[in-house]
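User: structure tokens for Co-chaperonin GroES, please.
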Amino acid sequence: MKFRSLHDRVVIRRAEGDVKSKGGIIIPDTAKEKPQQGEVVAVGPGLRDKSGNLVPLDVEVGDLILFGKWSGTEVTIDGETLLIMKETDIMGIVEKTQAAADKAA
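Assistant: Done. Predicted tokens:
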């Protein structure tokens, strides 16, 4: 199924949560707290201002973002659980530093 966001809606793939606690205890899925970080999968074209001009969104596909705990609506598309939310529900974009990029490599 193809899905296209409308207006200022953004589709998010949640980041994977921790499987173990700091003490090494394995956390079952039902007790895990859902992460408030995710990757932007799709974005709408933007909103229109009072004069009818299209104002594009600040986030792009592939951005790593932080969002509120109760933000968005969970949907299942092609067997994958995703979040759909308005851009205003996004708190910010996580930018990778050079040190983090070096560590990942």
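User: Anything notable?

Assistant: The chain has one domain: 9-93.
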